[in-house]
Amino acid sequence: MLIWFVVLYLLFSVGVGVYAARRVHTSRDFVVAGRNLPLPVVTATVFATWFGAETVLGISATFVQEGLGGVVADPFGASLCLILAGLFFAPLLYRMNLLTIGDYYRARYNRTVELIMSICIMLSYLGWVAAQVVALGLVFNVVSNGVVTPQVGMVIGISAVLAYTLVGGMWSVALLDFVQMTVIMTALLLIAVLIGGQAGGAGNVVMQAQTAGKLQLFPRGGGMEAWIPFVGAAVTMMLGSIPQQDVFQRITSARSEKIAVRGAVLGGVLYFAFAFIPMFLTFAATLIDPQFFGELIERDSQRVLPSLILNHTPLIVQIFFFGALLSAIMSTASATLLAPSVMFTENILKHFAFGDMSDKQMLRTMRIILLTFGVLVLWFALNSESSIFHMVENAYKVTLVGAFVPLAFGLYWRRANNQGAILSILLGLGSWLLMELLTPQTYWPPQLVGLLMSVAGMLLGSSLPEFNKSARHANV
C-alpha cells in the first residue's frame, strides 16, 4: 500500500515539473527562473534544497552516535552558511546580474580563474548529489519492504528527478520546493508530536539526550587537539558551501535584492530549526525500543528513522513521513543536478569549446549535460561506500580550499588580483591534497590547512608586483 503512495507522489512531482516548463522560454528562465521569484518561494527553495537526505537520514544517524559535537558541520555550519551568504554575499552578487557563480570569477579575475573554479565547484557536487541518490534507493527499499533493491530504487528515483528538472529547470525546482517545504514542515511537526508521546514526552527525550551526553556541542578539554578539528568541521560547510552554484541560483532567482537577502536568511533560520526534528525522532527511537534500535545503530544507523516510522506509526503517518522524506531528497537532488550542468555549459563549453552559442542552442546543451551528469552521479552512487553524511560533508572541502577565498576577497578587498587568485587556488588545493595524502590522521584537518594557505596565497600574490599586468582585472 505505502509503495503506491510513493509512486503517486513521484508522478505528481513530474507533473508539476511539466507544468512549470511552460514558463521556460530562455536559458535564463531555465537557470534562474527569469529572476522573478517572490520571497515565499525563495525562502522555500533555499530551505528545501538544503533539507535533503543528509538532514533527515545522515545528520540524525550521526547525532545518535556522536551527539551534537558530531554534527557541527551540518546543521550548524550549513545554516550559518545560508545566513552569511544572505547578509554578506547576496547583495553584491545580485547586483552583478550574472548567470552562474563561474561568471563572477571571470568578471572579477580572468578566464583562467573561471575555468579552474568552475571545475572545482562542479566536482564538489558529485558526492552531494550521489548522497541524495543513495537516499532515494534507501527509501524505495524500505517502503517496498525489500522488494525494490536499493540499486533499483536509485535508478527509479533519479529518473523521476531528471524527468521534471530537464523540462522545467529552475522553475520546476522552485515550484516543487514551495510545495515540498509545506509537506516537510507539516509532516515533521505532526510526527514529532506522535513519536515524542511514545517516548514519554518531548521533555523526557531532551532530558535523556542530555544525560547521555548527546547535547554537548563544544569539545570538553583536549586543548588544541580537540578544538582545531571542531573548527575545521564547522568551517567546511559554513564557508565551503558559499561559493556554490545552487546557493548562487537561489540568490539570483529572486525578484529583487531585498528578497534575495531575506530569502537566504529566512531559509537558513528555518533550516536550522527543522534540522533538529529528525535528530529528536532518531534519539526517541532508542527510548521506545532500546534493544532493536541499538542493534540497528550498530548495523546501519541511517535506517533507524525509517524503521521507527514503519514499526511504530499508523499508515497515514507513514505516508506523511515518506512523502516529506521524498520531498526533501528530490528537491535537493534536482537543484544539485541542475547547478553543475549549467556551470559546465556556461563556463566551459560556451567560452572554451563552442564559442558563442545562440540561446536556443545553450538551452538544449544544458539539458543534454544535465542528463549526462545524472548518469554519472548514478554510477558514482552505485559504487560508493561512504555514508550519506560524509558524502555531503566531503563535497564542500574542495570549494572551501579553492573557491571561497577568491570569492570573498574579490568582493571585499580591492587589491585582490588575478595573480593573488591563482596563487590562492594553487596553495589551497595543493596543501589540502598533500595533507589528505600524507598526513590524513593529524588533528589538523586538511581542509582547514588548505583554507589558511589559500588566504596566505591571496595576500601574498596580490601584494607582489604583477607579472602579467595586461590580464583583465575588474574591481567589484
What is the CATH superfamily label?
Sodium/glucose cotransporter
Largest sheet: none
In CATH, what is the class?
Mainly Alpha
Share of residues in helices: over 70%
Stretches with pLDDT under 50, minimum 5 residues: 470-475
Distance between the termini: 57 Å
Reported by name, the CATH topology is Sodium/glucose cotransporter
Beta content: under 5%
Number of helical regions: 22
| Protein structure class | mainly alpha
Radius of gyration over all CA atoms, rounded:
22 Å
Q: Summarize model confidence as the mean pLDDT.
A: 87
Can you lay out the helices and strands and say which pair or pack?
Elements: H1 2-20, H2 27-32, H3 39-50, H4 53-66, H5 72-96, H6 101-108, H7 111-143, H8 150-198, H9 202-211, H10 224-240, H11 245-252, H12 257-274, H13 276-288, H14 290-300, H15 304-312, H16 315-353, H17 359-383, H18 388-395, H19 397-402, H20 404-412, H21 418-438, H22 446-463
